[in-house]
Specification:
Elements: H1 2-31, H2 85-88, E1 99-107, E2 116-123, E3 133-137, E4 144-148, E5 157-164, E6 167-174, E7 186-194, E8 199-208
Antiparallel strand pairs: 1-2, 2-3, 3-4, 5-6, 6-7, 7-8
Length: 212
């Protein structure tokens, strides 16, 4: 009987010791501060895929740098001053005899993209007229490229000048040995070709005029 009572007392003591230890553990757990809440990696919604309320950080992309080609400004084209053709054409043969400019025609005779100048000129005459010549000047340098109608025996007076590419057609009236300058008796047509080194005569037509 005493032995059973001793065992009972011992069992009760062990049970009370276990309860005391459990209570101490519970108090320690209550006294500990709560740890930081962990956010799930799915945007704060545990167990879900929604990204509502998240602000994903996008890495900044540097703006591409382009090396734009440098455009050089083209020099403005300058228009040469108007020429005084009376001073540029050949002088008249006699002292004090004045040059007369009858016609100025511009056309690209040399076919280089720049208009050339054909100057029809004559001289002051005490008689009815002085024969015409045509001096052709380069459009860029104003260098004389050639002179047309020089030493023509019919003493032509130019009425028109036409240019088609490098071909120059000249119409004029002239005088035969039987005619007079007061009444020219020929209608003349000349055709010249510019060859790059000068002018070559292609044709000459002379038709008798019935009237002055």
């Amino acid at each position: 009987m005493r032995r059973e009572r001793g065992l009972l007392i011992k069992t009760i003591s062990i049970a009370m010791l276990g309860l005391a230890l459990a209570g101490t553990a519970a108090c320690d757990a209550a006294d500990k501060p709560a740890g930081p809440a962990t956010s799930p990696s799915n945007g704060g919604q545990a167990g879900g895929d929604s990204k509502f309320g998240t602000s994903p950080t996008t890495p900044a992309t540097a703006a591409p740098t382009t090396n734009a080609p440098t455009t050089k400004s083209q020099p403005a084209k300058t228009t040469p001053p108007k020429a005084d053709w009376a001073k540029l054409v050949n002088k008249c043969p006699y002292p004090g005899q004045k040059v007369e400019i009858q016609k100025v025609t511009t056309a690209d005779v040399t076919q280089d993209g720049t208009a050339d100048t054909l100057v029809t000129r004559s001289c002051d005459a005490s008689t009815s007229y002085w024969a015409s010549t045509i001096e052709v000047f380069d459009g860029e340098s104003r260098k004389r490229l050639g002179t047309l109608l020089q030493d023509d025996k019919e003493e032509p007076v130019v009425t028109s000048v036409a240019v088609a590419k490098n071909i120059v057609t000249v119409k004029a009236y002239g005088t035969t040995l039987k005619g007079t300058k007061s009444c020219p008796d020929l209608s003349l047509t000349y055709r010249y070709e510019y060859t790059g080194e000068g002018f070559t005569g292609l044709s000459r037509e002379a038709v008798a005029k019935k009237r002055c």
